[in-house]
Write a structure and sequence with these properties.
Helix content is 22%, strand content 34%. The chain has two helices and six strands. The termini are far apart. A hairpin with a 2-residue loop joins strand 2 and strand 3.
Length: 136
């Protein structure tokens, strides 16, 4: 099996007024983490935000590797239950041989917290914490 080159996680805000709707995108590569917040309607409270962080630190690289490995294991699992009232979470995986894999889950984000939690400590303190990584 080829190695994972990048994982892109797209997360939608779910049900509610369109003025509060948004999409988040978290992109993970072997040595970087980037984030984009895209409101469906920009206003003074919800503006588009983006940041990117790249590092060669062993701690950073190890945390990314562990998270990506756990995500890939979860995504390859055949049986997952969908919830009709859950927000869609899309995982797009790009492999080193340029093959791609995509899976959309309709599950509570809590199902992914354990897998994504190592990434939380990699978000720079002065940056916006992605909603998918926050504790609820």
């Amino acid at each position: 099996m080829p190695e994972v080159k990048s994982v892109t996680i797209t997360y939608e805000s779910g049900f509610g007024p369109v003025s509060e709707a948004y999409q988040e995108k978290l992109v993970i590569t072997g040595n970087s983490l980037s984030y984009q917040f895209i409101p469906h309607m920009e206003n003074k409270n919800d503006e588009e935000k983006a940041w990117s962080y790249k590092s060669s630190s062993e701690f950073f690289l190890k945390s990314i590797r562990e998270s990506v490995n756990e995500m890939v294991k979860l995504i390859w699992m055949e049986e997952r239950s969908d919830c009709l009232d859950a927000r869609p979470i899309t995982f797009n995986i790009l492999f080193t041989d340029k093959s791609k894999f995509k899976r959309v889950y309709l599950e509570p984000v809590s199902e992914f917290r354990k897998i994504l939690s190592p990434l939380k400590k990699l978000v720079p303190q002065h940056e916006t914490m992605p909603e998918i990584l926050k504790e609820h």
